[in-house]
Amino acid sequence: MPIDFQLISKEGGLTNRGVATWTRGAVGFTASFDVKHRIDKGSFTTFNTTSTAITVDGINPGQTFEVHVRAVGIGFPVKKSTFAKAKATAPALPDLGTSDDGKPITQIVPNVSDLSLSPINETQGLLKWTPPRNEKLNNLVALVRHSSKTDGTGTFTNAVKLAEVQATANSVTVPLMNGEYIIKLQDQTTKVKSTTAISLVLNIPSAIPKLLVQTRREDTDTPPFQGEKIDCFYSSEYDGLVLDGDQTIDDIKFDPVLGPTTPALNGIDGLASMDFVGERLSSGEYEFPGVLDLGGKFAIELDRTINSRGLYPSDLIDDRAELVDAWSDWDGTLAEDTNAVLYFRSSDEAPAADDILLEAGTDFFLLEDGDHLMQESSTNFGDWRVLEKATFVGRTFQFKCELEADHPDQTPLVEELGYQLSIPARTESSATIASGAAAKAVTFTNAFYQAPSVGVTAFNLASGDYYEVTSVTRTGFTVHFKNSSNSSIDRNFQYVAAGFGSEQT
Asked: Which of 424, 450, 474 lies at the terminal end of a domain, its last residue?
């Protein structure tokens, strides 16, 4: 049973975290573990758990961390293994030197300062900060996250990963997105992060008119998140997408004799949460229902909405199975080692006949029994790409979200998820055209996304001459010139069409 020590920053200072891990036996034979641990010659803290690891904070340099673990079997009489024992001594804390005022430096990962964002173009910006003065800077990376929140309530925990660069740099190119940019530094060896994040909020006014074609939110559907879920599920308890556990209800055992006093043998009543069984899986995937078809190939703008925070599913007081004496933190610990990423892929083709089409304004396709029809698309899509913000060209689009967790006791909680698809404004004008002595059908150089507004400038009109503009569609219109006697006449004209989008071939 190995014992490792992690250097962590807690309440502004350094301390050692002791981590003991062991291997779980077969689910059908090993129900739980009796655990005892102590620091130096103190009293043992004893509890029963289904986890295969424990962490204890606040172990001073030179103190011993001692752990005893034995497996508890299924059935009656209950069989228990002998205790496996391990002991290790906490290492000395690193000497980080002294600050300019002569006080010892206790924070191994300093904070950055002076965060700013300068536009490079319409879609990208340069995020800059002032690196801290620290001799260990070469071992640090800057973790850049982004929250869709624009009200200043974004935090490092409820934001998603955007970029990771060496801390020796003082800038990184990022997509220009409304929301909050947030940075912490992290030691690459110990994974310790800055105590305090620095952030800025960006809210960009749109200078170019756009047509909002589709606003899609998976979290506001009734019920929420109706797409296909792989190794994740919607938790009504937390109102968001979370990762599945690595066990099922069928793995939960009940012992009629020892169950009431042993959580792991107490059947369903011994579960901390009905939603979470076992340890968290490391990844999962949520696929939006169906595909979106624009009816033609257009240049579009995509903006994402994604708010996700890290979560310890068993960190609420009511969820904790261990004894109070085993709790290292009353307030819970921030789960900062999770992430959620929104992806999209596109095709220039019309959707295949067997695809489920989601026209703008519709949500999903229901079978008669109320279930959602899920099938693999046969449309020739391109590769999946991370959806941040940029301009893309395509006709048919699919979307998915991937959930990630670096530790088995954490899960991302995706609370808001969706996108906005917009098409930029466009104006088309013509050279001089002869109408001919009849109604003149005009075809636009490129079709608009929807019927535009059309203005006509007429030349060489005589007194009483007039024209009628009819049959305006996204592909063209008809103009008819007449004289005062309502007879068709031939006149010259130019047109200007103002609308949204330019269909491409």
From this structure: 424
Peptide bond preceding 94 in cis form (omega within 30 of 0): no
Tell me if 149 sits within 8 A of 178, measured CB to CB.
no
**Weakest-pLDDT range from 66-80, 391-405, 491-505:** 66-80
- Whether 234 has a pLDDT exceeding 50, the answer reads yes
Place of tokens 């995020």: 127
Mean pLDDT of 492-501: 96
The verdict on 175 and 237 lying in the same domain is no
pLDDT at residue 320, rounded to an integer: 46
Q: 367 pLDDT exceeds 50?
A: no
Closest C-alpha among 469, 462, 463, 454 to residue 490: 462
Does residue 36 sit in the same domain as residue 121? no
Predicted confidence at residue 304, as pLDDT, reads 92
- Boundary (domain end) residue, out of 29, 55, 89: 89
Decide the pairing of beta strands 466-470 and 476-482. Answer: antiparallel
Q: What is the DSSP letter of 316?
A: S
Task: Count how many domains the chain has.
Answer: 4
Angstrom CA distances, 334 to 158, 198, 237, 400, stand at: 10, 17, 19, 26
pLDDT value at 7 more than 70: yes
Residue with tokens 């299924």: 74
Q: Could you tell me if 183 and 235 lie in one domain?
A: no
Domain housing 125: 113-205
Distances (CA, A) of 416 to 14, 212, 376: 35, 19, 25
C-alpha span between 65 and 17 (Å, rounded): 10
Instruction: Indicate whether 331 and 440 sit together in one domain.
Output: no
Strand partners, 86: 67
- Residues 299 and 418 reside in one and the same domain: yes
Q: In this structure, are 177 and 73 located in the same domain?
A: no
Lowest mean pLDDT among 14-18, 33-37, 79-83, 437-441: 14-18
